Amino acid sequence: MAKIKLAVVGESVYAARLTECMRRKAPDYLEIVGCQDVANLAEFMLEVQPDLLLYEQGVIVQEQIPKEIVHIQITTEQHTEQEVGQKRIFRYQKGSEILRQIFRIYEQSSKKKLVCRCSTADLEMIAFYAPGGHELLLPFSLSYASLCGKEQKALYVNLSEFSGMAPLFGEKPGNNLSDLVYGVRQKKEQFLLCLQSVLHQTEYFDYVLPPENPQDLYEIREEDLACVLTQLQEQTEYQKIIWNCGSLNQSAQQVMECCSKVFCIVKENAFGKYRKLELDAFLKKEKRQRLREKVKYLCPQIGSSGFVQGSSVLTQLQSGDFVRQVEELTQDT
Q1: Residue 293 and residue 298: Cα distance in Å, rounded?
Q2: 253-284: b or e for each residue (b if 16 or more CB lie within 10 Å)?
Q3: Which terminus, N or C, of the chain has the lesser number of Cβ atoms within 10 Å?
Q4: Nearest to 98 by CA among 189, 32, 28, 1
Q5: Which is it for the CA torsion 19, 20, 24, 30, positive or negative?
Q6: Regarding beta strands 200-201 and 206-208, do their DSSP bridges make them parallel or antiparallel, or are they unpaired?
Q7: Are 333 and 297 in contact (CB under 8 A)?
Q8: How many Cβ atoms sit within 10 Å of the Cβ of residue 231?
């Protein structure tokens, strides 16, 4: 995805602070620049060529910018939802909320789908992937979700084929990710009802089971997943979402590109090294560079940190030697 440029125009201290705040919250594909020299706005626009312009009240921009640039005024007066659609944003809000509204206006004006806006809210997404398959993918990611859930409101979503999660949790058939995606496709305005129908809970985190039919993972449309990602951010209170990506299909790759980190679990043997080399070569391609920067390789070991027979696997995923290994491998990344 090519970078989108947002220019913030204003001479006040507030404009400068807002620019810095949004830079910290912005996703990778958004570049934010500031312009405090309003008198030379035309020259600035010619040099920077932004896609979006956010300007303070009192700044005259209509005659100085091309019509194709989406320009939004930030005001001191609150507006109704209909008036917000007229490209005005109330200034006395968190920078993350202002940025979220900017994305919404840009989508409406440009007809472009911005798949991930999760960096604009207090929400982080982490993905787990194992090139070539790995039996530790499920327990490792579940343990990580348990660690996150002890301090944050966490959601675990499984995109893995035959991961073993359903029998592990003892759930009945149905009410899985397929139901959520297709429910959202039909009734976007009822997202919370769709989510509630597929949601399950453990002591530390909520979770959504994977589809019973793996084919469903390959039939998820880009716009469906984009809608799910957006609604999770805008309508829920989750602070962290953990994705189990069993295959590097279109849906998993779309999710990974939206995450702040992608933990890749590899075996410390010859075949594990070969798979790592192949994945590295794939990520070095020009279009995968942004994803490559997110990838962190992990080599967990069973050894003495394995699971004890006769004891609850779920209990061991939330405490014990294995969990301590998960915490050690992920805490520095």
Answers
A1: 15
A2: bbbbbbbebbbbbbbeeeebeebbeebeeebe
A3: C
A4: 32
A5: positive
A6: antiparallel
A7: no
A8: 18
257: which 2 tokens? 């590109």
CA distance 22 to 7: 11
Bridge partners for 208 per DSSP: 157
Give SS3 for 212: coil
| CA distance linking residue 319 with residue 310, whole number of Å | 15
Query: Whole-model pTM?
Result: 0.66
Residue 250, token pair as written in the block = 């279109």
What's at 162, amino acid-wise?
F
pLDDT of residue 262: 93
119 and 21 in contact (C-beta within 8 Å)? Answer: no
Q: Give the per-residue pLDDT at 310.
A: 54
Distance CA 141, CA 245 (A): 10
- The tokens describing 142, both together, are 């579940």
Under 8 Å between Cβ of 45 and 37: no
Segment 287-321, tens digit of pLDDT: 777 788 889 998 887 654 555 555 566 677 777 77
What is residue 171's DSSP assignment? P
